[in-house]
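User: Here's a structure from my thesis project, written as structure tokens. My advisor, Dr. K., wants to see whether a designed sequence matches the one we expressed. Can you design one independently, without my sequence as a hint?
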């Protein structure tokens, strides 16, 4: 299932691949292959039920929900 955060050109391909592998495994987080930090997956963010406005890398919520939450930088809309 493609969500609004998928396909963001600002996410390097190797990082997106790590995220996608974690999602496929049902993981709520993964280690960024570039810096080793823990990053939450869209699965974890979907559990919240709303955009928190923090600016999460894999935010699954549409731009309108991100703006409504006060997010400082809205992710681009989903690519078709």
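Assistant: Designed independently from the structure alone:
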């Amino acid at each position: 299932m493609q969500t609004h955060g998928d396909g963001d050109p600002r996410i390097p391909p190797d990082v997106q691949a790590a995220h996608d592998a974690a999602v496929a495994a049902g993981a709520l987080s993964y280690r960024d292959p570039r810096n080793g930090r823990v990053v939450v997956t869209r699965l974890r963010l979907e559990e919240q039920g709303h955009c928190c406005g923090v600016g999460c890398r894999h935010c699954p919520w549409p731009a309108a929900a991100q703006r409504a939450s006060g997010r400082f930088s809205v992710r681009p809309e989903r690519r078709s």
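When you compare it with your expressed construct, this may help: The first strand starts at residue 29 and ends at 31.
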